[in-house]
Specification:
The complex is a heterodimer of chains A (314) and B (248). Chain A is mostly helical and 314 residues long. Chain A contains 15 helices and two strands. In chain B, helix 3 crosses helix 4, helix 3 packs parallel to helix 5 and helix 4 crosses helix 5. Chains A and B meet through helix 10 and helix 11 of A and helix 2, helix 3 and helix 4 of B.
């Protein structure tokens, strides 16, 4: 039971989590303007996207350099289901998340056969398939111009903000529940030593595919939320930049922690919004920051993250 | 009663026949040693039994069940667990978690915790539960390997060179643990180079050379066998001390 697993989080970490949640819940009260609330919503959505990558890479040790496949795929799937099939937004978002979960499940199979650099290259190629698809079926997907004119979320920024907060709280709770459960121990075992894990009875292939599917599902719903919030999408959601961005967020916050990626997403999203004026230099700045962080502080920039995942001797 | 039967096990790597029609049995409650020079195919036999390598020929029967095509993750659920030649661990986990990951395959919740603590106690590592593998000396890592395997509640334990790299006192102490495991009803198949310790422990010894079974039998017979002395032990072998005589 997720609630039972949340109770196993150390008390000081629970207090930290509660403090973060209180600050976020009160954000519409302290935010200086609507632009700031808008950035917070995007940060929440990117945090969910970062959590999905963290689950696959940080906890399970399966490199993904093409996570935009799921984020952009979730966005396009939800928009198409809403615009062309008339599904209401919540239903379209749910269906798109399930589609991305299924895609993760199916793509997990070929990924079982490769490791390390080869896995990174294979996952890097996934969004390229979708870009080709979007361009080929231009009548539906709008080619470079993308799609607009579909249903958005609520017209109220505050309502959208709280919806994004529900999404991020659910994603964090799910990730903590997984990591604190026996499955958390198993996926960390796969990350640390696959052969040894297999020798003590862990069905490594099954768990890797499950994590690809779950990670795809979470990234898919974040992409769908993003699409309905922005009310217009382009193939840029599938571009390499989107796959790199999520890596930077997780590395900045700290890999293999349930809160690190959230913090990383907030830092990068706010930085991103201030760097909009020097758009050409943005990725260069991020890339340099990534190199410096990996060199000087590979555990992430943040001085602390709640201790979730390490269990006591019972 | 026969627990494990290996029939005509064969595995080629290109032109090299690493294991060549090897057959043997292990009875319940026995300690059986496998010895042989480097490259004799000892670890390959373990890999073939546990499904880590596919077989070119041969069958493996455990209990009354044929497990020739078993997958490595299935072996622990039927009652076979192994350790590796090099110490192997989950470096980011505590010692307790390192063992618990093996226990949760067969039991849940508090039962898994109980099994974990029991396995740690059996190898004498209690008190070190919160340490990480990087903080443990080599001798403790060898014991951790065994504790992890024990947490799967095995009927048959395959130990790959459990005494390698240990001091004499550590070898003696681990030898006692091995005897205790046998007394608790676990059958053991050991690959080992330290014959001085293996001879008093083992009920039988199987000798491999160039992938083939050279001989098998009680330890005292095996260490006097001319073919074994020639292929593995060397002319200076002294079977009274189970060690090579010094030069001169």
């Amino acid at each position: 039971m997720p609630v039972a697993h949340l109770k196993e989080v150390p008390k000081d970490s629970r207090i930290q989590l509660l403090a973060i949640l209180t600050v976020l819940a009160a954000a519409p009260l302290w935010a200086p303007n609507l632009w700031f609330v808008r950035i917070l919503i995007i940060a929440n959505v990117f945090a969910v996207y970062a959590l999905s990558w963290n689950l696959l890479v940080g906890y399970t040790g399966q490199i993904s350099f093409g996570h935009a496949f799921f984020f952009g795929g979730g966005a396009y799937a939800s928009v198409v289901l809403n615009k062309y099939l008339g599904l209401p937004v919540p239903l379209a978002m749910t269906a798109s998340a399930l589609i991305c979960g299924l895609a993760g499940f199916l793509l997990g199979y070929p990924c079982l056969r490769v490791r390390g650099v080869y896995l990174a290259l294979m996952t890097w190629a996934f969004p390229l398939i979708l870009i080709g698809f979007v361009m080929y079926f231009g009548a539906i997907f709008g080619r470079e111009m993308g799609i607009s004119g579909y249903d958005g979320l609520s017209s109220s920024y505050v309502a959208n903000y709280y919806a994004s907060l529900v999404l991020i709280v659910s994603a964090v709770a799910l990730e903590i529940a997984i990591v604190q459960s026996r499955y958390g121990l198993i996926i960390r075992g796969i990350r640390d030593n696959e052969i040894l894990a297999e020798s003590v009875g862990v069905h490594v292939s099954k768990f890797k595919i499950m994590m690809f599917a779950l990670s795809g599902l979470i990234a898919g719903i974040s992409g769908a939320f993003y699409a309905h919030f922005l009310k217009s999408i382009t193939p840029e959601l599938l571009a390499v930049d989107m796959s790199i961005l999520v890596i930077i967020m997780v590395i900045v916050g700290g890999l293999g922690s349930a809160i690190g990626p959230v913090m990383g997403a907030f830092i990068v999203t706010f930085l991103n919004s201030y760097l909009l004026y020097i758009n050409e230099l943005r990725m260069m700045i991020y890339a340099l920051a990534l190199i410096v962080i990996l060199f000087l502080r590979p555990q992430g920039l943040l001085p602390w993250t709640p201790k979730i995942g390490a269990r006591r001797s019972g | 009663m026969e627990l494990l039967r290996v029939e005509n096990l064969t595995r080629r790597f290109g032109g090299l026949v690493a294991v060549d029609h090897v057959s043997f049995e292990v009875d319940t409650g026995e300690i059986v040693g496998i010895i042989g020079p480097n490259g004799a195919g000892k670890t390959t036999v373990f890999n073939l039994i546990t499904g880590a390598l596919s077989k070119d020929r041969g069958r493996v029967i455990f209990g009354h069940r044929e497990i020739t095509d078993i997958k490595p993750y299935q072996t622990s659920s039927i009652g076979i667990c192994r350790t590796f030649q090099m110490t192997s661990s989950f470096p980011e986990m505590t010692l307790f978690e390192n063992v618990k990951i093996a226990a949760i395959g067969k039991c849940r919740g508090q039962e898994a915790d109980r099994k974990t603590r029991e396995s740690i106690q059996l190898v004498g590592l209690d008190g070190s539960e919160d340490l990480r593998p990087g903080q443990l000396p080599h001798g403790y890592l060898k014991r951790l390997d065994i504790a992890r395997a024990l947490a799967t509640s095995p009927e048959l334990l395959l130990l790959d060179e459990p005494f390698s790299g240990l001091s004499i006192s550590e070898i003696r102490s681990l030898g006692e643990i091995v005897v205790n495991l046998k007394d608790s009803g676990i059958t053991l198949l050991l690959i080992e180079h330290v014959l001085r310790e293996l001879v008093p422990l083992a009920n039988r010894i199987i000798v491999l050379n160039f992938g083939r079974k050279l001989t098998e039998g009680p330890p005292q017979d095996v260490v006097r066998n001319e073919k074994v002395i020639e292929a593995y032990l060397g002319k200076r072998w002294d079977y009274a001390t189970c060690d090579s005589r010094p030069d001169g």
